[in-house]
Amino acid sequence: MLSLKTRIIAGLFLVAIYGLLAIATALSLPSSNIVFQHNAEQLVATIPGTGDITVVAFSNGQSSHPATPSLLLEEPDVLPYYSDLNRFFDTHSKLSQWLTEGTLLLVDDADNHYPVQSQQRQLTQLPGLFWLQLVCGLAGMVICILVWVPAKREISIHSFALTGLSYVLFSSAAAIYSTRDFFISGSLFTWLSGLNHFGALLFSASLAAFLWNYPRRFPYRWLTAGFYLTFAVAIVIDQGQWVASPVDGFHSWVMGIFLAGLLGSVWQWRQTRQQQGDRSALRWVVISIVAGTAFFAGGMILPAMLQVAQPASQGLLFTTFLLMYLGMALGVVRHRLFALEPWWFSLWSWLLGGLFIMLTDLLLAMMLSLSGPVTLTLSVALIGWLYFPLRQYLWKKMFLRHRQELDEWLAQALPAMLKAQQDTQTNAGMEQALNAVFQPLAIEAIATVAPHIHIPDQGTTLIVPDPLEQRSWRLQHAQQGARVFNRQDSRIAGLVLSLHQLVSQARIAHAKGVREERLRIRRDMHDDLGAKLLQLLHRSSDTTKPLVREAIHDLRDLLKDMEGESLSLEAATLQWQEETLQRCKDHGAELVWQARASTTVLGASEFSELTRMLREAVTNALKHASTTVLSVTVEQPGAVLTLLIENDGVHADHAQGSVRGLEIMDSRARKLGGCCQYHKVEGRWQVTLEVPLSNTIA
Question: Which of 307, 409, 445, 675 is deepest in the core (most CB within 10 A)?
Answer without folding.
Answer: 409
